[in-house]
Amino acid sequence: MFDISESNLTEEIISAISWRKRHLAELEDQVKKYHGGAYIDDAGMGAGQGTDPENYAFSYISLVLPRLAHDVPRVQVEAQGEAALDDTAKMIEMAMNTWATRSNLRRTIERIAVDMLFSYGVAMVTPVPNTSMRRIEPAHGGKLPRVYRISPDKFVIDPSATDLSDARYVGHQYVIDHDDLIEQGKASSYFDDQKVADLVTGDDETGTYDSQAGRNTPNRKQVIVTELWIPDGELPEEFQDGLHHGVIIRIASSGNDYYTVISEPEPFYGPPSGPYALVGAYTVPGDCYPLGVMTASQGLTDELNSHLKSMNSSAGAYRRLVLVDSRGTKLAQDIASTPDLHVVPVENIDRDRVVPIEIGGVTQQQLQYTSMTQDRLDRLTGLNEVIRGLVTGDATATEVQTAASSSGLRISWLQRCFAESIDNLMYVAGWYMYHGGEVEIGLGAESAVAFGSRLTFVGGSFGEDYDSYSIKVSTYSLERSSEALQQKRALELLQLVMQVGEAVPAMPHVRWDRLLEMVGDQMNMPALRDIISAPKASQQPAPPNAAGAGGVPIGSADLGGLTGQAMSGMSPGNGRASVGR
Q1: For residues 418-444, b (16+ Cβ closer than 10 Å) or e, as one string?
Q2: Rounded to whole angstroms, how far apart are CA atoms 455 and 91?
Q3: Of 437, 449, 405, 566, which is closest to residue 83 (Cα–Cα)?
Q4: How far, rounded to the nearest angstrom, does the alpha carbon of residue 279 sit from its chain's CA centroid?
Q5: Separation between Cα atoms, residue 548 and residue 563, nearest integer Å
Q6: Alpha carbon of 364 to those of 259, 351, 370, 371, 378: distances in Å?
Q7: If DSSP states are collapsed to H, E and C, what string results for 400-425?
Q8: How many CB atoms lie within 10 A of CB 305?
Q9: Is 574 exposed, middle or buried (0-12, 13-18, 19+ CB in 10 A)?
Q10: 511 — alpha (psi -120 to 50), left (phi > 0) or beta?
Q11: pLDDT (mean) for 100-114
Q12: What pLDDT, in 10s, does the model give residues 119-133?
């Protein structure tokens, strides 16, 4: 059992912060190079050195970020357990997609994606809005789950862990006004009111990278709270209900290494996976922190900029001079004072008396080595002229295709890693929506099409196990689709519907529902399976050569298990539904 004594928790937090700082040692410098000197006046890379000439971080992120978090993620929910209902899965899917839009999820995951490209991103899901994490919430968000970005320099994890799944504790830090913390403690029976009242306020003096550093804000009488989730924390018997997993402990400090436990272990209400998601691009063996692309390429980026600065210095020292005979004073004056493209008459001219020379300038060796360093950096990150859109025509079609394939593979890996992390977020958010008694989401016109009337998703009204449903983000829902691609897909969809619509009644033995789901996922059209009402597995007739075989009309209603007692749970008047068994 994990030791939750104050002395041990203090040692654990100090150790975790030290391990985190070693991973983020270059983050402050990377961010300054990313936004450049025009954004803020202290963006230089040292006294008098100025901004890097090649802003590689911005170039990379501006090209990759739209491919990761351009749009609101759309989820697909599938009933997989024996007791799961297809109609419940459809309602969960509608509710989660509506929630993602209403809670402004795209903006949050965009910030997490930028963190991932630098080092690693961290997200936390809460069942209701948390004012200590974000002061201003979307006006139409309601009391629904929220996804919050945790700054990488505020994340805390067990330093002995090699992955998030085997950490003894995970947590985050946040700054809160002392008065607000006192009020928060009064609203909870787990806080120690006396310890909270006795806290000493102060500034963050730990030396860690802080996004608020250098802003010269007045002392707001704040304290730093470290909130730890301990998965194997002991739960009281009344909380061993399958809805609570582990405990939450809060430790406060005023910016130094003195920590005070201000709360008793509070049972954590949430899924077994916990409230956090660690978003990373590449795994480092034996380390729990992922590796970001900008961190991996930091050495080559510095080397490239070092050569570019040297070239800038050489170019600034370039001089073009004209040497003349010291006895030809008048000739020297004429050359120096005559404007461009003017004729200078000279008696008895001798070309050997005028010698033009060049001093300084960029050498061929500098150009070659800088180009070689740029190529090495592009090979490391997968960023090349093809993905930049700078195809000059010098390369062959095969070379362009090979470069595009290599870059596409790198980008696809980043997309897969990011989408997998969003899957984890959606799973936790869906867990809170599924079990939350105060969750109510109107499903709008989409539910009227699927079920015949407008419905309201009500949390906590389902009898099936939540894990009976599979939740995943649609493959291409996060990235941007060009207008030309959208038009192409629309024409393909029209042709597909015409062809499949005729084939469904002719071949009833084919699993059309599964086929349409797979095709729709690849075409970024998750609603394709709903456009054509194909027979589901439970409705599949026998093959044509079997006795009593018959097809299902293409226009038949597809209500799955929404019949009998389940239909009686819906009120056509207000559309309020509690879909159960």
Answers
A1: bbebbbbbbbbbbbbbbbbeebbbebe
A2: 9
A3: 566
A4: 7
A5: 24
A6: 59, 29, 10, 11, 21
A7: HHHHHHHHHHHHHHHHHHHHHHHHHH
A8: 20
A9: exposed
A10: beta
A11: 92
A12: 999 999 999 888 777
Query: Would you tell me how many other CB atoms lie within 10 Å of the CB of residue 367?
Result: 12
Alpha helix positions (H), 344-455: 364-381, 385-388, 397-435, 444-451
Q: Tell me the pLDDT of the chain averaged across its residues.
A: 79
CB 322 within 8 A of CB 335: yes
Which tens digits make up the pLDDT trace of 227-247?
999 999 999 999 998 899 999
Of residues 477 and 97, more confidently modeled: 97
What's the number of CA atoms in the CB half-sphere (13 Å) around residue 261? 18
Angle, vertex CA 558, rays to CA 554 and CA 563, nearest 5: 140
| Window from 327-336, 337-346, 371-380, 479-488 with minimum mean pLDDT | 479-488
Do the beta carbons of residue 457 and residue 443 sit within 8 Å? yes
Could you tell me the maximum CA-CA distance found in the chain, to the nearest angstrom?
117
* Spatial distance between the Cα atoms of 408 and 413, rounded to a whole number of angstroms: 8
- CA 113/CA 115 separation, integer angstroms: 5
Residue found by looking up tokens 């209902």 in the block: 85
From residue 357, alpha-carbon distances to 99, 333, 337, 484 in Å are 71, 18, 18, 55
For 566, the token pair is 């389940």
Does the reported pTM lie above 0.90? no
Amino acid type, 313 = S
φ and ψ at residue 150, rounded to 5 degrees:
-100, 125
Q: What are phi and psi of 526, to 5 degrees?
A: -60, -20
